[in-house]
Please model this.
Amino acid sequence: MQPSTLYPGRLALQQRVLPTYRAPFFDLLAQSCAGGLSLFAGQPLNVEGIAAAENLMHAETTPARNRHFSDPSTKFYLCWQDGVMNWLERVNPDVLIVEANPRYWSNRLAIRWMKKQGRPVLGWGLGAPPLSGIFASVRRRNRMSYLKSLDGIIAYSQKGALEYQSLGLPAERVFVAYNSVVARPALTLPARPAEFQGQPTILFVGRLQARKRVDILLKACAALPKNLQPRLIVVGDGPARSEFESQAAAIYPAAEFPGAKHGPELEPYFLAADLFALPGTGGLAVQQAMSYGLAVIVAKGDGTQDDLVRPANGWQVSPSDQNAFNAVLLEALSDMNRLRTMGSESYRITREEINLEQMVYSFVKALNSL
Model:
């Protein structure tokens, strides 16, 4: 690492859970902290379907005992992490980063301890969308007291940063680290033929859950003119796989379900594809698809997609809007030259703007600003 990309102190970082897809980021961040990085995280609930990493190569990890109250998908979820103070006192960090989520009550103890030592605390979060429904006013007060106890906050996206600023947080203390799970592409832009080789190929990669809405993709493919109906490859596994396969048999029998693939196993699928489609929520494979030079169609989400998917490299469609998805898919496959140009822009974005290295750089910049 160059000196300008190093944080000279010791960093402690709290997470409710440590998903496997975050492991490369934390390891890279650890290498950018001269005093090292210590991570504190617990286990998810079984209903969440989160694959948790056990150990990291470069960051120290300390297991937390998560006490979950209610379900994380509800408005009234709370989490307490046993052992946070023992961890913090042992690590004795120069800076602490916590999740910017007021529902993680044990973080307040950690923040107070850091303040007593005269050391700063940064938050890291998606943003602060408006709250509504029962007890909204109480939840707003709780959120504001938590956010104001922080010395700064790192947002996943520009949208998230603006939401934090709209609450009155000073702009100079709100940082953006574009959410990324993919390293800067090491290889050149994959070469693709100027024309479809027979059928176009559409790729989906992800955990097969109901919220991924593979049914929308199946219906959209079936609605295309016969000459544009693609080879559809649905890579992944999960609780909804059998349901999606049954729907495919009835709606679009040509769909292929090769099962879960990971790491190098995914490469031939990305290289063979002409377009990547994600009709439901979530989906970390979007960036991976872009790094292989693919135009993408995604459902609008939490704001992180706004930075990643732009008119120059893809389309964002309202979630669950079948007609809109049908129209966009037809538009995408009707102009091969445009599709290839958009794929080149996807590659450029992941190479120059949004990748793990840039995300780490943004974190280090925020740390050094304190």
Notes: The first strand starts at residue 11 and ends at 17.
